[in-house]
Amino acid sequence: MILLQLIYSGIALGMIYAVIAFGYQLTFATSGTLNFGQGEALMLGALVGLTLVGLGVNYWVMIPIVCIFGFAQGALVERVGVRPAIKTRSEFGWIMATIALGIIFKNVAENIWGRDDLRFPSPLPEAPIQVLGANVLPMELLVVFGALGMMILVEIFNRKSIYGKAFVATSNDRDAAGLMGINTGMVITFSYALSSLTAAFAGVLVAPLTLTGATMGAVLGLKAFAVAIIGGLSSGMGVVVGGLILGIAETTTGFYLSTGYKDVPGLVLLLLVLTFKPAGLFGKTAIKKV
């Protein structure tokens, strides 16, 4: 039953990776760029959520407020760091800009909330419940279903709303979408805003399971990027599968071998995918017409 319990914990961890990786997909689809400050968006969401809870705001009321904050933060990143690079067609400008903004956000967080890790109170009972003979924390179940719910809502939005269809059209062919009258610049801004919203939401989901602090986002953001590469930057199913693989690999390796080796299986898988299937396990290889 220990293995089953490790798998449960791995699934919860993997879904956090998946929802952050899903944010990478959103920006890559519309602009071919990535927000390397995704981890810091998660961190800010968690810390803002902790502050609101400390002020007496109910956890469930706090979540939409944090999502609005994440939305605004993502739009700011696109306007300040990404749009100038896209306009000047700078190949690496957006990479350095998003990394720089991530460092700035981290430093601001350290000055506001301090360098010490803080405990985020759990909104659910902390006593584990039995599922198929193994213990599961109620918060872990919330993480899994909350992350899946967020990704499903975004997919429904993209398929059913007129704004979502503009998003899909831009991701399919940005130049053609522009010729059809779609404001592609606004769509790219929206994709960054939505990307940071999902990261901030992931932050308040994972915070009660771990310690909350200014450095919590760096590792999560990097591992989520690995998940996006493993699963494929063009596949929603890919990030879920990639997240589950990485999460379960980490928890089982950490228990059966050593916590010092828990990052190794995911990195080995990343290297193998980059070597044999660069587009990701579920990604589509781009075909260039000449």
From TrEMBL:
Subcellular location: Cell membrane
Membrane-topology annotation of the record: Multi-pass membrane protein
Main location: membrane
One Gene Ontology MF term: transmembrane transporter activity
Transmembrane parts of this sequence: 7-26, 46-71, 92-109, 129-154, 175-194, 200-220, 227-249, 264-283
Listed GO biological process terms: amino acid transport
Keyword Membrane carried by entry: yes
A cellular component term, taken from the record's GO annotations: plasma membrane
Keyword Metal-binding annotated: no
Record keywords, A-Z: Amino-acid transport, Cell membrane, Membrane, Transmembrane, Transmembrane helix, Transport
Protein name as annotated: Branched-chain amino acid ABC transporter permease
Organism: Achromobacter marplatensis
